[in-house]
Amino acid sequence: MTREGDRYTIRPGRASDATELVRLHAAVQLQAGTGGQPHPGIAAWVDGLLAGHPSVAPDDFLVAEELATGRPVASLVGLRQDWSLAGVRLPVVQVELVGTAPEHRGNRLTDRLLAALHERCAADGVPVQVIEGIPHFYRRFGYHYALANGGASTVPAAALPAAERGGPDDAPGVMTVDPATVANTEALAGIDRQLADGEALVCPRDAALWRHEIGGRAPADLVRRVVAVLRHGGDVRGYLVHGARLSDAGELTVFAAACQRPADWQQAAATMHAYLGRVGQQYAATADRPFVAVRPVLDANHPLVRLGPPGVPRRPGAWYARTGDPVDLLARLRPLLHRRWQAADLRWPEPALVIDMYGRAARLEFTDGELTAVTAARPAVSPSTDPGTHAAIPPDALLQLALGHRTLPEVLDAWPDCLLRDHLTEHFLTVAFPQVPVRVWPRN
């Protein structure tokens, strides 16, 4: 993608870019923590993405190349993954490593890289893009805080239970937590398949991705995590994913926790917290800081949090999210909407329900009261007065509804330009879009 008289071209990454991309990102990411020196954790992460990550290829990077030198001077990567929303597969691209060399800033290269990424997602049928980043900045590119992130209390180290074992690891009734091995990958993938059929928004991993998380990352990789398995006798019953080192604040971060059987959580929560206490003390013994607390990047209602020791409350954060085609997003969620209305014994009395999004519109088609299709419709000139429009919902509000971040009453309270034709429409859409737990640990 080159413009006449341009200094740059935007192109897909190549395997031959590896050295330059490692150097670029190590020099521009997280510089506040390195005093302006290249960041070794970033370097190892980028190198791993380009040379062995099971779901990333070099052309998942997008590069701004300076034509005069042929060198990459800005870049980002779109990490492809499949999430699951209450059992419905949802293709997602997570945007990471957005960076520009200092001497090339001010040329709108981030704008152009994101535009190229969004065009690629549209062509490939990826309805959702997500990113963590600078507060407010990515709103310029159509992103909105539409996914909950965190909110669990931080547990002081002193509040963690003592490590107790009721007998040998294979004794009846005893649960233990131990570092995972590659031999556990099929069991872990099986747990994730089960979680994907639940009601939460999750990012399931197959055996190859679990193998990579357990043993495929370099020790210096910034996003390397430690995977541990919850055992009951010889069976793998769950998992726990935590940081590979203490944070600068002396906290041990928890990224994911799961149990195959919900009934196990009461015992599992105590066992997992005792394990985290042991790991935190081990890390402190080799670090230049004390172990202060466990910080779960989980929602406040996660069973590990709800059944664990009390802690210091934290304000929830959020991911930025974007959809270039909200009609396609609703079409992908059609089986879920059908299931929710069916479970509530609701049948729509008209042939269609039209949702206008101020520039786009979706037509939800019904047969005998049951949802059968979602298609694009011509948007109304004035949705608030158009007799064929049942709901007018701003696109950022619809994204939050679709992903389960906000309920319809919350959207009606926050968006005055969210309009509903009648109480029946309000009831149907309230049932269609409940709030859902976000249990996403992305594949970065």
Q: Report the major sheet.
A: 9 strands, mixed
What is the general shape? globular
Count of helix runs? 12
Helix proportion:
25-40%
| CATH class designation of the largest domain | Alpha Beta
Instruction: Note the gap between the termini.
Output: 27 Å
Sequence-ordered SSE layout with sheet pairings:
Elements: E1 8-12, H1 18-28, H2 40-50, E2 61-66, E3 71-85, E4 88-100, H3 109-124, E5 128-131, E6 144-149, E7 155-156, E8 175-179, H4 185-196, E9 201-202, H5 207-215, E10 225-232, E11 235-243, E12 251-259, H6 265-286, E13 293-296, H7 303-306, E14 317-322, H8 326-332, H9 334-343, E15 352-356, E16 361-367, E17 370-377, E18 391-392, H10 395-402, H11 408-414, E19 419-420, H12 423-432, E20 438-439
Parallel strand pairs: 4-5, 9-20, 12-13, 15-18
Antiparallel strand pairs: 1-2, 2-3, 3-4, 3-9, 5-14, 6-14, 7-13, 8-10, 10-11, 11-12, 15-16, 16-17, 18-19
